[in-house]
């Protein structure tokens, strides 16, 4: 190690990768591979103690708390209360274990423990969903009363349709009352949600496709959920153009700033000024490094199917938000609905990065990331709960014109897929083969012409030798 004492952590990592993989540039310390953003040095993270998990400290505090509850606190006689407290304590102990012992993900800011915490929350939420899935419909809905006694009661869905006039001439006092009625708390929620989704996906086209597709799904499923019944201008003007479009625009501007930002970090205690320290603390909540997502869905069949799968999971997670409220009798403004959205905001970015790494470099990332795996499992489990708890609503047949539109769209997508990745490739290979054959024939023809134009002239056959001329003044022969 003495010969590498002056190298930085990136050069040491590149050198180690060269020894392990036999990469020539890495072996020589000139590696050009993309390094993960979760490996900052201690000085760049703000100090040597910041990157430690503090496993012994957490274990000591946890043991002291459990000892206090066991030895100094009298156990109440309320069975329901003890059950709730025991479940909460079990979850907290698991979270403490996961935060200190779980494997780090691709993100390291603001701290790796933050992302380990949400990974463990994903496990707890998936286990909760599986428990709900194995209950009867009535028991599952009444079980939520243990979380909040106000739950377990059927709630009517609000109808956002009705009078769709933008300007109501019959209402002299406020002709735009229909517009003002739609401007509720969900308008800023739509904007903020799509701003964060853009930061996750990092692609304008994919975000726009998901936004427009979800409005089509609302049109198609309004016969199942009254909540989807909205006015046309509410769908396309307020949602797609104003809330979603403005959120996507602001998200893309933020991505542009993050991609142009210089990522050169300095330890907090190495900054001399107070203003510099405050700025460094604020930038701790920005990425350690930046990776630009280039999905390129049309480059190969594997990437095309992966992008289609990502869009499908996004749409399914959006639909689960409304269907879970419907089947579990959750009011739209309940804090459980808000907590679920906060949960997906925190785990969605990590899952998208792991999916992109798995799709972009399968040789380096041989398996799907742990957070992406959990997000896919949670989405599927939520769908199964909806199917089990209210199969009647889901089996309501689509209107004929709606089914025709979805059939036509599916056929067009399937036709384009077959043409792009099968027929087009066959045609291009056939044209390339013909071009190579014609080029080969042309080269052979030019070679023959070249040989014919430069043949050597045939030599004259040997004949009788001509007499040499007589030299001047020489005697004539006899």
Automatic annotation (TrEMBL):
Gene Ontology BP, a term: phosphatidylserine biosynthetic process
Q: What does this protein do?
A: Catalyzes a base-exchange reaction in which the polar head group of phosphatidylethanolamine (PE) is replaced by L-serine.
Topology in the lipid bilayer is annotated as:
Multi-pass membrane protein
GO terms for cellular component: endoplasmic reticulum membrane
**Mostly located where?**
endoplasmic reticulum
Catalysed reaction equations from the record: 1-hexadecanoyl-2-(4Z,7Z,10Z,13Z,16Z,19Z-docosahexaenoyl)-sn-glycero-3-phosphoethanolamine + L-serine = 1-hexadecanoyl-2-(4Z,7Z,10Z,13Z,16Z,19Z-docosahexaenoyl)-sn-glycero-3-phosphoserine + ethanolamine; 1-octadecanoyl-2-(9Z-octadecenoyl)-sn-glycero-3-phosphoethanolamine + L-serine = 1-octadecanoyl-2-(9Z-octadecenoyl)-sn-glycero-3-phospho-L-serine + ethanolamine; 1-hexadecanoyl-2-(9Z-octadecenoyl)-sn-glycero-3-phosphoethanolamine + L-serine = 1-hexadecanoyl-2-(9Z-octadecenoyl)-sn-glycero-3-phospho-L-serine + ethanolamine; 1-octadecanoyl-2-(5Z,8Z,11Z,14Z)-eicosatetraenoyl-sn-glycero-3-phosphoethanolamine + L-serine = 1-octadecanoyl-2-(5Z,8Z,11Z,14Z)-eicosatetraenoyl-sn-glycero-3-phosphoserine + ethanolamine
Q: Which residues cross the membrane?
A: 53-72, 84-102, 114-134, 304-323, 335-352, 372-389, 401-422
Family, similarity comment: Belongs to the phosphatidyl serine synthase family.
**What name goes with this protein?**
Phosphatidylserine synthase
Q: Where is this region: Disordered?
A: 434-478
- InterPro entries xrefs: PSS (IPR004277)
Molecular function GO labels: CDP-diacylglycerol-serine O-phosphatidyltransferase activity; L-serine-phosphatidylethanolamine phosphatidyltransferase activity
EC number(s) recorded for this UniProt protein: 2.7.8.29
* Naturally occurring in which organism (per UniProt): Ailuropoda melanoleuca
């Amino acid at each position: 190690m003495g010969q590498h004492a002056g190298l930085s952590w990136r050069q040491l990592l590149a050198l180690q990768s060269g020894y392990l993989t036999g990469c020539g540039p890495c072996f020589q310390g000139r590696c050009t591979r993309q390094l993960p953003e979760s490996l900052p040095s201690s000085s760049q993270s703000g100090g040597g103690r910041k990157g430690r998990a503090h496993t012994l400290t957490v274990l000591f505090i946890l043991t002291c708390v459990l000892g206090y509850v066991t030895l100094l606190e009298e156990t109440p006689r309320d069975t329901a209360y003890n059950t709730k407290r025991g479940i909460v304590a079990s979850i907290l102990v698991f979270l403490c274990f996961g935060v200190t012992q779980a494997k780090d993900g691709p993100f390291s800011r603001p701290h790796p423990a933050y992302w380990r915490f949400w990974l463990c929350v994903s496990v707890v939420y998936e286990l909760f969903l599986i428990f709900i899935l194995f209950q009867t419909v009535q028991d599952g809905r009444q079980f939520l009363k243990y979380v909040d006694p106000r739950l377990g009661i059927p709630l009517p869905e609000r109808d956002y349709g009705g009078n769709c006039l933008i300007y109501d001439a019959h209402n002299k006092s406020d002709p735009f009352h229909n517009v003002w009625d739609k401007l509720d708390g969900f308008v800023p929620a739509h904007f903020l949600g799509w701003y964060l989704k853009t930061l996750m996906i990092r692609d304008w086209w994919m975000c726009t496709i998901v936004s427009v597709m979800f409005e089509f799904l609302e049109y198609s499923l309004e016969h199942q959920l009254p909540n989807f019944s909205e006015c046309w201008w509410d769908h396309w003007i307020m949602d797609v153009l104003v809330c979603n479009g403005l959120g996507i625009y602001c998200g893309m501007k933020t991505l542009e700033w993050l991609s142009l930002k210089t990522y050169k970090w300095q330890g907090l205690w190495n900054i001399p000024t107070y203003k510099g320290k405050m700025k460094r603390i604020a930038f701790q909540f920005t990425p350690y490094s930046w990776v630009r997502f280039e999905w390129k869905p049309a480059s190969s069949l594997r990437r095309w199917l992966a992008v289609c799968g990502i869009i499908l999971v996004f749409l399914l997670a959006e639909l689960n938000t409304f269907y879970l409220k419907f089947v579990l009798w959750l009011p739209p403004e309940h804090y459980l609905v808000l907590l679920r959205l906060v949960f997906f905001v925190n785990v969605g970015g990590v899952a998208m990065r792991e999916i992109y790494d798995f799709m972009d470099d399968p040789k380096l990332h041989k398996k799907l990331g742990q957070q992406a795996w959990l997000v896919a499992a949670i989405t599927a489990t939520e769908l199964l709960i909806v199917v089990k708890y209210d199969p009647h609503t889901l089996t309501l047949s689509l209107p004929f014109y709606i089914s025709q539109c979805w059939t036509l769209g599916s056929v067009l997508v399937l036709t384009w897929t077959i043409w792009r990745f099968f027929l087009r490739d066959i045609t291009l290979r056939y044209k390339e083969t013909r071009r190579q054959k014609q080029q080969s024939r042309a080269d052979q023809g030019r070679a023959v012409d070249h040989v014919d134009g430069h043949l050597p002239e045939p030599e004259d056959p040997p004949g009788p030798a001509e007499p040499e001329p007589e030299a001047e003044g020489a005697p004539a022969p006899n």
